[in-house]
Amino acid sequence: MSVDSTTATTPYSAPNPNYSADSAKSKTSSTPGIADNFQTFLTLLTTQLKNQNPTDPLDTNQFTQQLVQFAGIEQQLKTNDSLSSLVQLQTTAQATQAMSLVGANAIVDGSKVQMTKGNAIWSLSTDKPVSAQVSIQSDTGQTVYSGKFTINAGKDQAFKWDGRGNDGTQWPDGNYKLSIVATDASGKTATVSTQIQGTIDSVDLTQTPPKLSIGGQNFSLDQINKLVRANSTATSM
């Protein structure tokens, strides 16, 4: 085995007597109320003016304030409708993008992979050459393989394991975790990041955002680091 470089709640208002289902069909929002019909608002305001106290008439400033309040409510409803549309468009775009990735070979952050047909692949990245003690554990925590390797500086270096233990035993397909303890040329502890590489088997559109299944594990779109060719080169034992 070796390593090869490679939002706010919509406000409610008084029912609109002129509202009808037919007229609502042509509107983006289906919320009936005073903000849906300016004529209704004017009717209510005119009624208020007709029935005002002659000895204490409606102040001009109050009249203006009511107009401003109406405009503010109407704008709030339009803003809520616009935000709802944007959220729906974004959700649809995420679902479309996720579905297009089914069958692609992806790299995501992680150390556990599902070995299939005696084939398990990780992707390693380090910013400098290191000496590394690599160990692989089964799902039960048992160490099934260990060895020392020199890992060159670079990103996305394929590390492939054929499922054979140090004694030659062929381990069954399943989940296996890769652990690395590395030191640089001066003997100081160094970091080697691990990513898993596998085929995106399916997409769960019932989740928000959609979840991509890779080797039995679920990941969101923003966790995908890179898409690579299915036949990406990797050197094995």
Give me the Rg, rounded.
32 Å
Question: Roughly what fraction of the amino acids lie in strands?
Answer: 25-35%
Largest sheet: 8 strands, antiparallel
Number of helices: 3
* CATH architecture annotation of the largest domain: Sandwich
- From the N-terminal CA to the C-terminal CA, the straight-line distance is 3 Å
Q: What is the mean pLDDT?
A: 77
Q: Which range best describes the helical content: under 10%, 10-25%, 25-40%, 40-55%, 55-70% or over 70%?
A: 10-25%
State the domain count.
2
Structural class: alpha+beta
Element pattern in H and E: EHHHEEEEEEEEEEEE
Quantity of strands, as a count: 13
- Residue windows where pLDDT falls under 50 for at least 5 positions: 5-31, 232-237
What is the top-level CATH class of the largest domain?
Mainly Beta
Q: What is the name of the CATH topology of the largest domain?
A: Immunoglobulin-like
Overall 3D form: elongated
InterPro entries: FlgD, FlgD/Vpr_Ig-like, FLgD_Tudor
Keywords: Bacterial flagellum biogenesis, Cell projection, Cilium, Flagellum
Biased composition (Low complexity): 20-31
Region (Disordered): 1-31
